[in-house]
Design brief:
It is a single chain. The chain has 267 residues and is α/β, with parallel strands linked by helices. Helix content is 53%, strand content 7%. The protein has two domains: 141 residues, no CATH class; 98 residues.
Length: 267
Amino acid sequence: MPPLDVLRTFVSLIRLDMLDLNGAHRRACFIATVPIVAVIGYALYAMRRSSAQVSRLFVWCTLACTALPFVLLDLMSGGQRTTATRYFIPLFLAIDLSLAALISVKVLSAQSRMAEKRLWLIVFSLIFGVRIASCAMSAQAQTWWTKFNMRSIDVAAALNSASHPLLISNDYIVWALALGEYADPSIDVALNPRCYLCAAPNVGTVDLTILSRQPSIDTVFLFGLSEPLQREVKGVMAARPQALTYRCIDIRDNCRNDLSLFPPAGS
């Protein structure tokens, strides 16, 4: 990733701890990022006045030990480590602790004026409100950006609607497993997944004799197949006396069809 994209991603991560609307309102998220990051930055800066040195060190070390290695490595050598949100859970904890410390000091301190206390009560209400809105929106969603917005449910519904489907794939097993939670377990499959960690891409050969062994199959779903295997499947289908319905499930532009595991780019 370019350095500018790394920084943009990291700033978005900081905002996501407080406001996460799945990218549905990008302009609103962009506008909200500036005050949110400003408040979080001020909270982390205000930790220096904490009377407990151990608390300050815990927050700052938690922040530095999780964020700096990933961001600096991406800036210096490239990569997409910053996009792996699960690695930044300690960062979110540090942010929450710093915000709690800041608001408690501003609201409960005897030295704070009443107007200042009211201001920070409003800030607390806004933080609480946007987090509730984010949780309410995610609770109603079938998928979220952290799951690549995969359309597993829609694809599985198409599989389940066929009277006797066959799923064929020689792509990564993770894509087939993404359908496993929603697809009918009685569906016939012909899988020979690629090795995920091999240095050289190894496209396995799928056993297509199931097409002759199971004459009742009426619909063939090709799931992330390579072009040579797509041609082979079409040849086997053409040799069958029974007519078959052919559907290709698109995984990142491996075929052109209305049935895709991922939403169109830019949607």
